[in-house]
Specification:
Blueprint: E1 2-10, H1 15-29, E2 31-36, E3 40-42, E4 53-62, H2 66-79, E5 94-100, E6 105-106, E7 111-112, H3 121-130, E8 135-136, E9 139-140, H4 141-145, E10 154-155
Antiparallel strand pairs: 1-4, 1-5, 2-4, 3-4, 3-10, 6-7, 8-9
């Protein structure tokens, strides 16, 4: 079983419900969710003006290959109404594979570990809650998070 870390975000519709439905669909599809962060309200990121996000991270175990896990994530996004019109634009759900064991992959379809995870507090804050000792680029999540501002990120209850 591979151990994977996932990041989820939503800023359209029932944001928290979208994340919960995505996690349930991933679990049913072969990525067994073993840990889940709280939901966090985060500022929108990117060049497009849009509503605030809810972000969360999850740890999962899977027998799926990295490519099959990516296909599952994309299928769940589509089933939950994700429309890819504008890069970094509004979305009902976004699911990113952050890590897949210690595997390093660089293909046109998939880069692991996720190339921007270490630069994004909206990923690292929830990830630190479920996997503070996880390493990206040789550095622990808590170390990476200490280099970033986490202002504008609020834990939801």
């Amino acid at each position: 079983m591979a151990k994977v870390a996932l990041s989820l975000g939503s800023n359209l519709g029932d944001k928290r419900g979208n994340i919960a439905r995505a996690l349930s669909a991933l679990d049913r599809g072969g990525a067994r969710i073993v840990a889940r962060s709280a939901d966090f309200r985060t500022e929108p990121w990117g060049p497009v003006a849009q509503d605030w996000f809810v972000n969360a991270c999850a740890l999962a175990e899977t027998d799926l290959s990295p490519e099959d896990l990516l296909a599952l994530c994309l299928r769940v996004e589509q089933e939950l109404g994700r429309v890819r019109e504008t890069k970094w634009g509004p979305r009902a759900i976004d699911i990113d594979i952050l890590t897949y064991d210690d595997l390093e992959i660089g293909t046109p379809a998939l880069t692991l570990p996720h190339p921007f995870a270490a630069e994004r507090a909206f990923v690292l804050v929830p990830l630190a809650e479920v996997a503070p000792e996880l390493r990206l680029g040789g550095r622990r999540i808590v170390e990476l998070l200490a280099t970033l501002s986490s202002g504008g990120i609020t834990k939801l209850t």
